[in-house]
Structures are given as structure tokens and as C-alpha cells.
């Protein structure tokens, strides 16, 4: 009853649909599987995907990031040093994406991780490293 109809010329209304149905690829296609514990990257070669290997020759990379001094570590390198740098090594951060700090799941996670989960200015859950720098998930 209260809905309004937006009327646009057919050429404008159908343009996004035509693009979506197009099968012509004009550039490289990359797919990223961002997992809570492991992540993976693939590219399309012709009509088949090819999973890329990381620096260690593995097809999956631990979803871990660490900050150690001025150094930024990712994957296995970050995971290996986590025991000596727990406050600045972040893992399972995917669980924070789109969540508010007050969310019951976040409040439970705060008790189970060695790094700090903090409230951002807008109320979202962010992480904070050992030096006090905050990062959005």
C-alpha cells in the first residue's frame, strides 16, 4: 500500500541484468576463500580454477596476522611466533566481521583469545595489538 514504484526506461532498468548475464570476461578472475582458520586464493585459467601456492608451497595459508615491531607477518610466519607475541597475533578475526562489541558471541570470544577485542568508535568489535593500535577486522 505504501510502496512506490520507480519507473525507468527499459534500457536503464535492464543494463545491470545484461551485465550480470554476460559470459565475456575482460580481465583476470581471482577468488579468495577467507576462512576462519585457513584461507586460499585461486585464479581462473581458461575455464578452470588454479589454486595458488603460498611461499611455503602450500595451497592454504593460516588466517593469522601478527605485528612484531615494524614487521608485519602473515600465515605460517605469524602462527609460528604466536607463542612469544600473543597480544599482537590475531587469528579467528573473521568471527568479528559485522559484529557489534556488545554481541554475546563477542563477549564470549573476549575471554578465549590472548589479544584484546575492543569497542570501536561506532560500536563495532575491533582488535587491538600490544602497542595499543586498533584494527578493523
TrEMBL record:
<comment type="similarity">
    <text>Belongs to the heat shock protein 70 family.</text>
</comment>
<dbReference type="InterPro" id="IPR013126">
    <property type="entry name" value="Hsp_70_fam"/>
</dbReference>
<keyword id="KW-0067">ATP-binding</keyword>
<dbReference type="InterPro" id="IPR018181">
    <property type="entry name" value="Heat_shock_70_CS"/>
</dbReference>
<dbReference type="InterPro" id="IPR043129">
    <property type="entry name" value="ATPase_NBD"/>
</dbReference>
<keyword id="KW-0547">Nucleotide-binding</keyword>
<keyword id="KW-0346">Stress response</keyword>
<dbReference type="GO" id="GO:0005524">
    <property type="term" value="F:ATP binding"/>
</dbReference>
<protein>
    <submittedName>
        <fullName>Putative heat shock 70 kDa protein, mitochondrial</fullName>
    </submittedName>
</protein>
<dbReference type="GO" id="GO:0140662">
    <property type="term" value="F:ATP-dependent protein folding chaperone"/>
</dbReference>
<dbReference type="Pfam" id="PF00012">
    <property type="entry name" value="HSP70"/>
</dbReference>
Amino acid at each position: 500500500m505504501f510502496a512506490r514504484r520507480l519507473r525507468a526506461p527499459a534500457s536503464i532498468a535492464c543494463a545491470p541484468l545484461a551485465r550480470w548475464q554476460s559470459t565475456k570476461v575482460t580481465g583476470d578472475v581471482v577468488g579468495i576463500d577467507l576462512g576462519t582458520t585457513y584461507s586460499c586464493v585461486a585464479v581462473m585459467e581458461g575455464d578452470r580454477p588454479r589454486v595458488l601456492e603460498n611461499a611455503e608451497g602450500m595451497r592454504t595459508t593460516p588466517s593469522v596476522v601478527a605485528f612484531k615491531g615494524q614487521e608485519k607477518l602473515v600465515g605460517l610466519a605469524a602462527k609460528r611466533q604466536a607463542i612469544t607475541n600473543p597480544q599482537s597475533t590475531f587469528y579467528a578475526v573473521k568471527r568479528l566481521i559485522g559484529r557489534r562489541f556488545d554481541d554475546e558471541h563477542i563477549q564470549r570470544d573476549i575471554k578465549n583469545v590472548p589479544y584484546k577485542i575492543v569497542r570501536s568508535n561506532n560500536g563495532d568489535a575491533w582488535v587491538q595489538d600490544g602497542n595499543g593500535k586498533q584494527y578493523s577486522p
